[in-house]
Amino acid sequence: MIDWFYSLEWFPKLYWSIALLASFIFIITIGLSLSGGDTDEFGDVDADIEGDTGIGFQFITLKNLVGFFTIFGWSGIACIDADFSYSLTVVISIICGLAMMGIMAGMFYSMRKLSDSGTLDYKNATNQIGEVYLTVGASRSSIGKAHVRIQGALRELEALTDNPTDLKTGTVIKVKSVTSNGILIIEKLNN
Q1: Sign of the C-alpha dihedral, residues 10, 12, 15, 21?
Q2: Cα–Cα separations (whole angstroms), residue 133 to 44, 54, 56, 116, 124
Q3: Same domain for 127 and 75
Q4: Is residue 105 left, alpha or beta, with left meaning phi > 0 and alpha meaning psi from -120 to 50?
Q5: The domain that contains 163 carries what CATH number?
Q6: CA distance 30 to 44
Q7: Does 105 share its domain with 170?
Q8: Which of 114, 140, 170 is the last residue of a domain?
Q9: Residues 68 and 88 grouped into a single domain
Q10: How many CB atoms are located within 10 Å of the residue 40 CB?
Q11: Following CA atoms 29, 35, 40, 46 in sequence, which dihedral angle do they give, to the nearest 10 degrees?
Q12: Which residues on neighbouring strands pair with residue 185, listed in sequence order?
């Protein structure tokens, strides 16, 4: 096999080198991803780049570059085997590599959008309709509890009211606001 490789011209030799090296790195990257080894403790470069939450769609990451060079190399080899000119081979392999980077970036972007932190954001309770579970004292005299649907789940949360009378169990309420420590400020919903 070594004799075959050394007998190649410089152009096919370059593409074979890129394809084999990138494929080797690609296999290692996929293996680490499947085994959970692409976490921060192994020094995942993409995790460092993705740390900036200001950019949702990232085109240039380690995985995308590995994908680019893998497809770049193999598509170039296919073009060489089809007897395309050097310039056409380079153009086609660059287009194929960029297409792969775009597909991978879009795929990772879509997967990232599917993730949910699971953290309850109390501000999402504002303007939601709910029901008093434990009596809420008038004029913020005592904390009660209310059932409110937040982020797709029914939650039982502490509540206060500015209402001049107590809000009894079963009263339909609306959340006016949320305090900084997560207590709902509710009002009776007028039917």
Answers
A1: negative
A2: 47, 40, 40, 28, 19
A3: no
A4: alpha
A5: 2.40.50.140
A6: 12
A7: no
A8: 114
A9: yes
A10: 9
A11: 30
A12: 160, 177
Token code pair at residue 72: 């770049």
- In this model, does residue 160 exceed pLDDT 90? yes
More confident residue, 23 or 107: 23
| Residues 171 and 109 both lie in one domain | no
CA–CA gap between residue 118 and residue 191 (Å, rounded): 34
Query: In Å, what is the CA distance from 69 to each residue of 24, 166, 188?
Result: 11, 68, 63
Q: Note whether 106 and 126 are same-domain residues.
A: no
Count of structural domains, the chain: 2
- pTM as predicted: 0.52
pLDDT of residue 140: 93
Which 3 state secondary structure label does DSSP give 69? Answer: helix
Question: Which domain range does residue 31 map to?
Answer: 2-114
Give the torsion through C-alpha atoms of 171, 172, 178, 179, to 10 deg. Answer: -10
Token reading at 86: 């050097």
Element (H, E) at 76: helix 62-81
Residues 24-55 have pLDDT tens digits of: 999 998 888 778 765 544 444 444 444 444 45
